Every structure is written in structure tokens, then in C-alpha cells.
């Protein structure tokens, strides 16, 4: 088999979602060249196409974080064991996942160093040095970095031993300011997920059993994937004064008294790339939201005769000039592949719009656009292209969100008893909205009998108005990644 035939088979052979969603997911990640397995157990290599997506996501989210007054900083990867051990509940929560450095060069270390599973300990120690007065508050810091958690079961992007993320860590003078920050950043995540990633999410609080180790309260955004499983897409934690007491982070208030600060932490990870794949993809591969797609439009030249080539290339040059600075454009002028093969490849890779340019298009002074989400075709005149293509991309962005929201709503049921939940999860997936009075016993029984967990108690209870009695809230249960 020739290299071209092997590549063609590589592009075309893709599992159907309905037959084996897990296999479909892994094949899409690898064949679309987003990531691949690394030689280190549980780790991945993020390939240029996948990393370009992460860079676009990082750029958009970083702007949102800075717009709320936060600054970026960087803290060490290695954390002394004695520092980590100061906070028993936190350590216990992460103990099975911590990777340790025990030797440097030829020397055995006197103290083990943890490769950061998260940074509360190291940042807490630094805040204890930096904060002296109420005038030093609030501290609003964020860092973009990698972390390591020794996961037993891994899956590309969704759960890997090493992954990339951002983690915000803030310190405040009052509990009210702290809680305001927690909800502010949760809203930043919600809007980022829905506006930029086209992923509808429920923003809500976690139950006591599901909260972050050491937190007073954890809030999250929860999304529904196309296999009916939920995915936690981001978290925002109210740490209260817990870590402040452990690491002695105090300040002198306006009355001259020493007080412990109130802290938050919040983060999202490269798991969001997996969320994009599983929210929008279909049997042909990825469908990428234009706002984060590495390539927003691909131009495919078409000619049969050599004498047609020059005119097509010249026209494509005019197309490229017209769209410069307006869209992320790729001209696929590889001559070793047919136009049909290129269509297949760029569909697999989720490019939002394909622009076909052949002799007939040149004669009309237009390009033929094809949407990835609906495959609807539209001939667009060259002089209209600079305005029409960005508008078309905006429409695709909206359409992807609406389609994902419709899927989520169609796969959200209502139940009121453990028996009804059992009946639902015996044959279906998706979210189930349940009136909940905060009973840990009910939550545990549901998990034991159905495998579903309490994903969150939505902050917006409007969709289920009247379902819960006084003293209750509606909680969402689902099986999850």
C-alpha cells in the first residue's frame, strides 16, 4: 500500500459514535492530530493542531481573567513535603495522586519534593510573607502552568497524569469579598464555555462529598457530552480561612487587629479540549467552534487542466488578501492530494468553513463556501467575502451552541425518588433533575445503585420552578467522566 493510500485510509476509517463512543473519541483525537500518547505512562503529547486550539482558548480566557483585575504570576513546580503536610485534609485528598522527587542528580534528597498536584501550599506560604496589612489586599493572582496527578486510568485530554491548566489564587479581607470573587470567576467560566466554546453548562455548587479537599464550598460548571455523560468543565473554590490558618496568612485590619485572610482558588484545564470534541463532534470527526478553531476557513483549489491552474492560484491570492487579518485562513495547495481527499481531511479536523475555488468560481468572481456543521453551500462574491465570511463564522458559532443546548435539554429528565433514578439510568443517560434537601444518605444511595453522582445544585433554579418543595433545591445527577 502506498503512503497516499495509507493516509487516505487513516482519514476515512473512523468509528461511529453510536457504535463505540470511547473508541470514536480516541480515534478523532489521534487522527485529527490533536494529541498522541507519550512514552511516559499516562502522559500525552499535544500536537501543533491541538496546541493551537489551546493557545486560542488560553488567549481568550486570559483576557477575561485580566479584565477582572487579576495578574499572572508563576510559582515553583516542586513543593517541599513538609510544606504540603501542613494541611492534613488537603494532603489526604491528593495523597494517592502525588508524584515525588527523591533524588537530584546522584544525591538523595534530605526531603522529598512533590511535583505540584495543585498550588495552594506553595502559594499559601508566599502569601504569608507578602501580606502584612489590609492595604495589601486583595491579592488577585493567576498562573498558567502544568500539574501532575498520578492517575490510574487515563484518557487523552480528559484525564492524564500531566496536564495544562490555569489556577487562580486570591486573598481577601472579608468573607463577603471572598464569596463575591468565587462567584465572579464561576461566571467568567460559564460565559467562556458558552460564548467561546459553544458548550452549554450548568453553573452550581457541589455537595459536601464532592467538594475540593480543604474548601468550604466548591462551585463548578457541568456540561453534557454526546454520549450522555456529564463532564466537570471548571471549578471555583471558596477556601475560607482554612489555608490561611494553616500557613499563618494574616493581616492587620483598619482597627489594628490581626485577622486571617479569606482565600479562593479556581481553574480550568486542557480537559476543555476534550469537552469541545465530545460536545460538537460527529461521525465524520471534529466540529470546532470558530472562536477557538486553529483554522477558521480552508481554501481548496480545484483544477483539471494545467491551463486552469494559474487563474485559480491568482484568484486565491486575491481571496487571501481580502481576508487578511479577518479570519484564520489556510490555503491547502498540496498537489499530491485530490480535492476530495482534502475535503475529507478538513472535515475530520473540524475546520468550520471550506472555500472551494475552481475555474467556474473564478469566472463568477466568487468562492463556494461549505459549512462544516450543516454542509450548506453558498456562493460568495469576492467583494462580499470580507464581510460575509466573519458573519458566517459567527452564525456557525451560535448554531453549534444552540444544537448542543437542544441536545442537553432533550437529555434532561426529572425524578423524585431513588427508584425513579434507578429506572432512568437502567436504560438512559443524561442529566436528571431531582428535588434535594441536602441529604448525604440520599446522594450516597443514588451513587451506589445507579453509578450516577450529584453533579451540582444549579445556581439558576428557574428551569425547574415548582419541582422542589420549601427547604429543597433541585440537584442534577448524572454518570460522569
- Determine the fraction of residues in helical runs and give it as a percent range: 25-40%
The main sheet orders its strands as 3-7-8-14-11-10-9-22-23-21-20
CATH superfamily of the largest domain: Bira Bifunctional Protein, Domain 2
Secondary structure tally, helices: 15
Query: If you consult CATH, what is the topology of the largest domain?
Result: BirA Bifunctional Protein, domain 2
Highest-level CATH class of the largest domain: Alpha Beta
* Major β-sheet annotation: 11 strands, mixed
In percent terms, what proportion of residues is strand?
A: 25-35%
Count of discrete domains: 3
Could you say which overall geometry the principal axes of the C-alpha atoms support?
globular
CATH architecture title of the largest domain? 2-Layer Sandwich
Describe the structure.
The chain is of the alpha+beta class. It has 3 domains: 264 residues, BirA Bifunctional Protein, domain 2 (2-Layer Sandwich); 97 residues, Anticodon-binding domain (Rossmann fold, 3-Layer(aba) Sandwich), CATH 3.40.50.800; 67 residues, Translation Initiation Factor IF3 (2-Layer Sandwich). Helices cover 38% and strands 27% of the residues. It contains 15 helices and 23 strands. The strands form 5 sheets. The protein has an 11-stranded mixed β-sheet, with helices on both faces. α3 packs across α7 and α14 runs parallel beside α15. The longest helix is centred in the last third of the chain and has 26 residues.
